[in-house]
């Protein structure tokens, strides 16, 4: 499939090795885009456990370190492990709710992290074994399904950017203040101006430059916190089993296995999305290799005190916007993550970037993902009535957790792990509806429509 897209004797952009400086700066841009998403889960879970400031810093560094290792597995690959696409891996946010539930149900809080680590190890190993079977679901992901899911990925991520734009602490009095929103807007404007009036390499790293400029603007107003830099140690290694040997409890294992299924579903959708963006469509073999990297990275992560890993959808938007498709660029980003895990002082430099600055840049990044989904839907055959219904209902189902976060409040916690993820819910609905409308009992072509709300009389008149 790759050969059909790449002229004979040339290197596909995914496999292209760029100059070292360009790879380093572009890789750093990927790290900046996903940093907040990596550090948020350990901060939330660590706070629930009651870790001290030093232990919380250790846990965050461990998650950065394991995210880098998982990114290496995904981008560079070994054997049949790794999609070898420009994928950034990190801690999946889908596991936050069940992990905090495990913490709440553990009497001795010192046992909470070992119980979580044991459950993640088992779920990762089971997911690794299931990857060759799970990947066969690719035939149920035609453009009408992938386009819907990609669009949902972007739409689901946009509230994260809006939250960042309002400030770092929702409980603070200045959360959502005009100054925070102005800083986010200024960053967004800077990125847009750089994209519009520059060219070449400067244009490609517009997001990184926008975040640097936004941070500089924030300093005179006291909106950039340099405390993490002054308090951070220069060198620190995430010693294996720092919080104790893993413990294996059935309820926790079942909970994390459900999270693993959700994570594998989202990773499959992400790989299909990125395959379209980089013009190297992800086939069954690629998805199987990518899922092996996700699951193996998750199984190994607890050894170094990290959590379950998954592909980061927000970085797809960065690839789509910059058009830098080299997987080695993202591997450089993985190297930065490993270094930050080994050097807390370096990790703290990224933490200096104010949340509103990340929010302004996130609007561009996450909106680009949604735009990629819309481009895929254009090729999905929306002149067919069946496809219009699939898109309409799957998007509606996926947007429920965004617009009505408490919609499923009366459902069991296990079910809510899936239902509260708009990406997973929309993906399942799209796959099921595609089977129902386009496969089960279809005797011919789906009828053409000019509008999804056509009446039966209007359709009859057309035909």
Supply the key terms:
single chain, 463 residues, mainly alpha, two-stranded antiparallel sheet, 2 strands, transport, Nucleobase:cation symporter-2 family protein, Xan_ur_permease, cell membrane
Mind explaining what this structure looks like?
The protein has 463 residues and is mostly helical. The chain is built from 20 helices and two strands. Helix 5 crosses helix 11 (250-277). It is globular.
Describe the main β-sheet briefly.
2 strands, antiparallel
Record the strand order, biggest sheet: 1-2
> Tally of extended strands?
2
Shape summary:
globular
Strand content: under 5%
Category from helices, strands and their pairing: mainly alpha
**Series of secondary-structure elements, N-terminal to C-terminal:** HHHEHHHHHHHHHEHHHHHHHH
Mean pLDDT score = 81
Radius of gyration over alpha carbons? 22 Å
Percent of residues in helical segments? 55-70%
* Through-space gap between termini: 38 Å
Stretches with pLDDT under 50, minimum 5 residues = 1-5, 444-460
Subcellular location: Cell membrane
Organism: Streptomyces anandii
Transmembrane segments: 32-52, 58-79, 86-106, 112-134, 141-165, 177-194, 206-223, 243-262, 328-351, 357-377, 389-408, 414-437
Protein name: Nucleobase:cation symporter-2 family protein
Would you spell out the secondary-structure blueprint of this structure?
Blueprint: H1 2-5, H2 20-49, H3 53-75, E1 89-91, H4 96-105, H5 112-134, H6 143-166, H7 178-197, H8 200-204, H9 206-218, H10 227-231, H11 250-277, H12 284-300, E2 309-311, H13 314-322, H14 327-342, H15 344-351, H16 355-378, H17 385-403, H18 413-419, H19 422-438, H20 456-462
Antiparallel strand pairs: 1-2
Helix pairs in contact: 2-3, 2-4, 2-14, 3-12, 3-14, 4-5, 5-11, 5-12, 6-11, 6-16, 6-17, 6-19, 7-9, 7-16, 9-16, 11-12, 13-16, 14-15, 17-19
Organism: Streptomyces anandii
Family: Belongs to the nucleobase:cation symporter-2 (NCS2) (TC 2.A.40) family.
Subcellular location: Cell membrane
């Amino acid at each position: 499939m790759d050969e059909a897209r790449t002229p004979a004797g040339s290197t596909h952009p995914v496999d292209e090795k760029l100059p070292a400086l360009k790879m380093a700066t572009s890789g750093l841009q990927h790290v900046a885009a996903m940093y907040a998403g990596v550090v948020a889960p350990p901060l939330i879970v660590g706070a629930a456990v009651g870790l001290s400031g030093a232990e919380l810093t250790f846990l965050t560094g461990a998650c950065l370190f394991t995210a880098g290792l998982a990114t290496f597995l995904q981008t560079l690959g070994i054997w049949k492990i790794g999609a070898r696409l420009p994928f950034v891996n990190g801690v999946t946010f889908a596991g936050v709710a069940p992990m905090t539930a495990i913490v709440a149900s553990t009497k001795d809080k010192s046992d909470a992290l070992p119980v979580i680590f044991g459950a993640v190890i088992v779920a990762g190993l089971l997911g690794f074994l299931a990857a060759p079977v799970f990947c066969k679901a690719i035939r149920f992901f035609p453009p009408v399904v992938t386009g819907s899911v990609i669009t949902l990925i972007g739409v689901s991520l946009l509230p994260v950017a809006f939250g960042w734009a309002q400030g770092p602490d929702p409980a603070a009095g200045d959360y959502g203040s005009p100054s925070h929103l102005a800083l986010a807007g200024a960053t967004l404007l800077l990125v847009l101006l750089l994209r519009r009036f520059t060219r070449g390499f400067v244009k490609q790293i517009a997001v990184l430059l926008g975040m640097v400029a936004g941070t500089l603007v924030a300093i005179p107003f006291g909106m950039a916190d340099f405390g993490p830099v002054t308090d951070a140690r220069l060198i620190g290694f995430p010693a294996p089993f720092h919080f104790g040997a893993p413990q294996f409890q059935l309820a926790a294992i079942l909970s994390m296995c459900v999270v693993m299924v959700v994570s594998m579903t989202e990773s499959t959708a992400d790989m299909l999305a990125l395959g379209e963006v980089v013009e190297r469509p992800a086939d069954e073999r690629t998805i199987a290799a990518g899922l092996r990297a996700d699951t193996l990275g998750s199984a190994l992560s607890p050894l170094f005190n990290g959590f379950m890993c998954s592909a980061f959808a927000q970085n797809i938007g960065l690839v789509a916007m910059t058009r830098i498709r080299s997987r080695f660029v993202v591997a450089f980003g993985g190297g930065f993550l490993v270094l930050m895990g080994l050097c807390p002082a370096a990790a703290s430099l990224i933490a200096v970037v104010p949340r509103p600055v990340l929010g302004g840049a996130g609007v561009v990044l996450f909106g680009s993902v949604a735009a990629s989904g819309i481009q895929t839907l254009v090729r999905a055959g929306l002149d067919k009535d069946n496809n219009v219904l699939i898109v309409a209902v799957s998007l509606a189902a996926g947007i429920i957790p965004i617009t009505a976060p408490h919609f499923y409040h009366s459902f069991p916690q296990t079910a809510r792990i899936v239902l509260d993820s708009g990406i997973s819910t929309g993906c399942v609905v799209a796959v099921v509806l595609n089977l129902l409308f386009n496969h089960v009992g279809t005797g011919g072509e789906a009828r053409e429509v000019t509008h999804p709300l056509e009446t039966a009389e209007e359709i009859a008149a057309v035909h």
